[in-house]
Design brief:
The complex is a heterotrimer of chains A (247), B (304) and C (292). Chain A has helices at residues 40-47, 70-76, 93-100, 109-112, 118-130, 146-159, 176-191, 203-209, 227-232, 234-241, and strands at residues 2-11, 14-24, 29-33, 55-60, 63-64, 78-80, 164-168, 195-199, 212-217, 220-225. Chain A is an alpha/beta fold and 247 residues long. In chain C, the strands form 2 sheets. A two-stranded antiparallel ribbon of chain C has the order 1-4. In chain C, strands 2-3 form a two-stranded antiparallel sheet. The longest helix of chain C has 28 residues, at 2-29. Classes of the chains: A alpha/beta (247), B mainly alpha (304), C mainly alpha (292).
Chain lengths: 247, 304, 292
């Protein structure tokens, strides 16, 4: 579904992403891990065209999306969340989803700019209920707790009806129970047909949920495989933990 | 009574000016150049009625149309500039328009007299209202109707997806783009709508005062237009209305101070910014009001 | 034509000085002080007032000192009411507030003087003179203006790079929170930069009024606008940038005024401003913080 082909990104003198290639199959949950500064968030930003690529190409559903603008990438079917939550503080929960919602085919384009038709309402209500935010739907997003705001970010992404959902460090600042809930959420989304790309540090989360893992270090692909394969890989171990010194 | 009619008319026109700044400000762009669109609307519609014999309403619409086109032309380069820099850039635009008007000489002989804008001397005898026998009351009613219609449109905008989208862009452009919103079109569109509102206000202003001078579209108008919104608040369309009414109350209530009026304006702005930096009606207040009204409606429903 | 270019160059120093005022404040606080122009003018008026009230007796250097300190005091006041107590992250409230002060100061001046123009004295300690270089005439007051500008720039350079206050301003402009943690007191530093900038404004207002010969309240708006153009053009936060931009603007204005007329001159100035903002908002030499 998503393919990166020899993607390179330079910032001035810094090589943030170096010749990165990988693929995600439809219906998979793929995790992108690596130490801080290894280029994970930059990769997400490149996919969503927040930054232009220095070279290389990105394909989605066999379509070259390298040169599309951010909102066009989203409309093509990719959604993402942000590491430092970016919900619209001055809008209600409902409005946050509404502005992101993909227009239902049976409603006219002009009307969809004004009110929410029945189909849209039903769709958004469902997304809200799935994220346990239905009761808070008329509250300002700025008043939500951290956990609720995180759920809103995911919900907003889902409101765009994406084929691929990219989560940027969704577990940051969460404790064990919340992480378990997050794992459930991710599995549910995948079972309902969404492909997922996950970035995180919390290895427990990643290893229990992902089908495939790609490890980055200094912008380069260090290893690729199933969680078990990657965990056993000595190069990965030394990147994360450092090599043992001979005593 | 004539005095009251004039006052209401002026208030209505200023509400349009305030709404113009408000529209653009919703998307996170503060424009100190809306007086430029105001001026364009004024001059174009005045030329249409006085020199070309166009009837009032089409002339107003023409003024609006030209303003809107210029609004789009300004909106695109404005994309590249943010925050304070945008404030300065839009002010520069306003000044370019004002200075440009200083070199507009376009007169024609109509009904035996020479009419039209004469550069810095201005544009006299925009007499459409007089020629057609309108009284001050008639003018007031026209303005009130037009402003009421515009306010209804804005109220609808607040509750619509377009309104929420504009606010989303104003809150966080990157997040908005990530929600599939085309930030470019929303921001330029905001400039276009704001320019239309200002152009309409300008057209009404021109015919109301019957005399236009480039001097009337300078720094003070820029400041007062933005002051309506910053003092009134960005929480909703009520904000600029509150701002206009606030300054109106101030100047009328302190009428006995006469020429010290502008000084009071300045002082009022300074005090208002210190007491309520985010405006009289900001987003939080609006939300609390909506909650109050919403919960009353809910409890009313429960009781029936 | 060359003559007007030279005149423009020299007068450009006054634009540079006002631009420096704006750029200093922006460099330290990332905000605009729109009351800067009126502050400059107020300083000049104070000097004039002392001169007239004393029966035309006070020597010019004392009047100059009055202008500088008077303007400095006004600058202190502007800081208190427009910047000190307002939310630091929200730049529009201070902007609006300083606009309120702009209107207030201009109006007070208009009322006290009945908005009449006054002749501004050119009371000098020496005989008025002119240098002549072939066709080009260099007026003494323009030269004095240029000399003062260079002195101000030199003084600023010394202050910013060789004193603790300067060190504090540079630190704060780069990393306000970290600077505070190291002991820099932001409010005090901002206050002092404000007063300094206002003092320079007073000096500039005085010199400008002196070279023009008349003083009217409308000068405040003119100076504000020129100052903004120069500060942005030169790069906000950069004093050398403001100087270069001021000189260029001075020459550009003189030439367009000579070739066309005053209105075209103003349009050109605004087009330059608009173009710079859209094409290269960082201006000629602007960086994120002072002088880098």
């Amino acid at each position: 579904m998503l393919a990166l082909d020899r993607v390179v990104k330079n910032f001035g003198g810094i090589q943030a992403v170096d010749n990165l290639s990988f693929e995600i199959q439809t219906g998979q949950i793929m995790a992108l891990i690596g130490p801080n500064g290894s280029g994970k968030s930059t990769t997400l930003n490149l996919i969503t065209s927040v930054y232009p690529l220095t070279s290389g190409a990105i394909y989605f559903d066999d379509r070259n999306i390298t040169r599309l603008a951010t909102h066009q990438v989203i409309r093509a079917g990719i959604a993402r969340t942000f590491q430092n939550i970016r919900v619209f503080d001055n809008l209600t929960v409902w409005e946050n989803l509404w502005v992101a919602s993909k227009r239902k085919v049976e409603e006219s384009k002009l009307k969809s700019w004004i009110t929410a038709g029945r189909a849209t309402r039903a769709w958004l209500d469902e997304v809200l209920k799935n994220s346990h935010l239905y009761d808070r739907r008329h509250d300002l997003a700025g008043n939500l707790s951290l956990g609720e705001a995180r759920r809103l970010e995911v919900a907003r992404g889902m409101a765009t009806d994406p084929k691929l959902l990219m989560l940027d460090e969704p577990a940051a600042g969460m404790h064990v129970t919340e992480i378990a809930e997050l794992v459930d959420t991710i599995r549910n989304l995948q079972q309902q047909g969404t492909t997922i790309l996950l970035i995180d540090h919390v290895l427990d989360l990643v290893m229990s949920v992902a089908h495939k893992v790609v490890v980055l270090n200094f912008g380069q692909k260090l290893a690729e495989g199933t969680p078990a394969e990657v965990q056993a890989n000595p190069k990965v171990r030394s990147a994360y933990l450092g090599t043992e010194k001979e005593l | 009574m004539d005095y009251i009619y004039s006052l209401v008319t002026q208030t209505g026109i200023h509400i349009l000016l305030g709404l113009s700044v408000y529209t653009v400000a919703l998307t996170g762009q503060v424009s100190f150049g809306q007086q430029g669109f105001y001026a364009i609307g004024a001059y174009v519609s005045a030329i249409a009625t006085t020199l070309w014999g166009v009837p009032l309403i089409p002339a107003l619409l023409l003024g609006m149309a030209v303003s809107t086109i210029v609004g789009v032309l300004v909106g695109f380069p404005a994309l590249r500039v943010k925050g304070l820099y945008l404030a300065i850039a839009t002010f520069a635009f306003g000044e370019i328009v004002r200075n440009g008007l200083n070199i507009v000489y376009y007169t024609r002989e109509v009904g035996g007299a020479e009419v039209g804008p004469v550069g810095p001397e201005g544009f006299r005898n925009i007499s459409n209202f007089n020629d057609n026998g309108w009284t001050t009351l008639d003018v007031m009613i026209l303005v009130v109707i037009i402003v009421a219609v515009v306010l209804v449109i804005y109220a609808m905008l607040e509750r619509s997806r377009l309104g929420a989208t504009m606010r989303a862009v104003g809150a966080d452009e990157l997040a908005a783009a990530t929600a599939g919103i085309s930030v470019v079109w929303i921001k330029v569109g905001a400039f276009a709508i704001g320019a239309a509102a200002a152009g309409l206000g300008g057209g009404l202003y021109a015919h109301f005062t019957t005399f236009l001078s480039p001097l009337a579209f300078g720094l003070s108008v820029a400041i007062i237009a933005v002051a309506y919104v910053l003092v009134g608040g960005l929480g909703s369309w009520l904000g600029p209305v509150a701002g206009v009414l606030f300054f109106l109350a101030l100047t009328e209530g302190l009428r006995f101070l006469g020429e010290y009026r502008m000084m009071i304006y300045g002082l009022a702005v300074v005090i208002a910014m210190n007491v309520r930096p985010y405006g009289l009606i900001d987003a939080k207040l609006m939300h609390r009001l909506k909650d109050l009204l919403g919960s009353r409606a809910q409890s009313a429903r429960k009781e029936t | 034509m060359l003559g007007s270019l030279v005149d423009g160059f020299l007068f450009g120093f006054s634009y540079a000085l006002i631009g420096i005022g704006f750029t200093l404040i922006f460099g330290v606080m990332q905000k605009f002080n729109l009351a800067h122009g009126p502050t400059a003018l107020a300083g000049a008026y104070l000097g004039l007032a002392v001169y007239r009230l004393s029966g035309l007796v006070v020597p010019s250097y004392l009047l100059f000192a009055v202008a500088v300190t008077g303007a400095g005091a006004i600058g202190w006041l502007v800081y208190q009411v427009c910047f000190r107590f307002l939310p630091k992250e929200y730049e529009l409230a201070p902007l609006m507030s300083s606009m309120g002060m702009l209107i207030l100061i201009e109006e007070v001046i208009s009322h006290l003087t009945d908005a009449q123009p006054f002749e501004f004295p050119n009371p000098l300690l020496y005989e008025a003179f002119e240098f002549e270089f072939g066709d080009i005439i260099l007026r003494h007051d323009y030269l004095l203006l240029a000399a003062m500008a260079l002195a101000v720039v030199g003084m600023l350079y010394y202050l910013i790079f060789h004193t603790r206050l300067g060190l504090a301003t540079r630190a704060i402009s780069q990393q306000p929170v970290a600077a505070q943690l190291c002991g820099a007191r932001i409010d005090r530093v901002n206050e002092m930069v404000f007063v300094l900038s206002a003092g320079i404004a007073g000096a500039t207002g005085f010199m400008v009024a002196m070279t023009i010969g008349t003083i009217i309240p409308g000068l405040a708006s003119v100076m504000t606008i020129k100052g903004l153009v120069v500060a942005v053009f030169g790069g906000l936060g950069s004093v050398p940038g403001a100087v270069i931009a001021g000189l260029i603007l001075g020459m550009l204005e003189a030439e367009t005024s000579y070739l066309f007329n005053a209105t075209i001159r103003d349009i050109v100035a605004y087009l330059v401003l608009f173009a710079v903002l859209v094409v290269r908002p960082t201006g000629l030499l602007g960086k994120r913080s002072l002088y880098q």
